[in-house]
Amino acid sequence: xxxxxxxxxxxxxxxxxxxxxxxxxxxxxxxxxxxxxxxxxxxxxxxxxxxxxxxxxxxxxxxxxxxxxxxxxxxxxxxxxxxxxxxxxxxxxxxxxxxxxxxxxxxxxxxxxxxxxxxxxxxxxxxxxxxxxxxxxxxxxxxxxxxxxxxxxxxxxxxxxxxxxxxxxxxxxxxxxxxxxxxxxxxxxxxxxxxxxxxxxxxxxxxxxxxxxxxxxxxxxxxxxxxxxxxxxxxxxxxxxxxxxxxxxxxxxxxxxxxxxxxxxxxxxxxxxxxxxxxxxxxxxxxxxxxxxxxxxxxxxxxxxxxxxxxxxxxx
Length: 316
Known about the structure:
disordered N terminus
């Protein structure tokens, strides 16, 4: 449109164009800013109360000598970075971090991933009734409350009257939670958390074109070759997402406390249990706040590694 034509634009047309533009006080759907804020206000309040405030409170007590009881509970003093120096030089913290890494790597990144994918792959061609039955049994372990599941496992692994020892014909049998606490926790977490990986991989496998699988079968590819060359390239991003989620959930899982409480002799004291024992049992809230921030930074680092891997996958 030339300058002359622009000048000749009828006033009615200009008014219509102006009417189509949202005013500064209105959003694109015409609700208005006040109504839009009213809609999101409850969510913002909940986020502030249950996420933002606890985060800032943790940062605050991490630089104080705050305790549950005594004079430091009534009037805590700021100690600066002393708590963080103590954490970074504490062998107990590094022990709990090492146990947590083993717990996460073996039970989540490997155990739940492999078993979840294996179940999803095996159930693809199963009959509907069998598939529904197995999915229901696996999901049952996931949806039951943690306290109920922990009690069932304690009863099952009991030395004197436990189901496992009775099946093995041992009386008195092995005290599994005492002699092999980390092994018991790893097996427990694989059993409990596999359901999520199974559901995610079941949805991911449905996106693999059947024609590609049929072509691989016709050319004589083995199962491992089909998985490597056809299936995994299609579900790579799903696998990364699943690994990130189950890694973060397991890293911050408090259920091990219900089984072993970190014992015996701190041999199963993963990071969340160590924080609880330091804060609630030991009463040292300031020190536990510093530990919590360090654990949070480790979680953020894991998330950044995932994001970098996902970005590399999109660009390749």
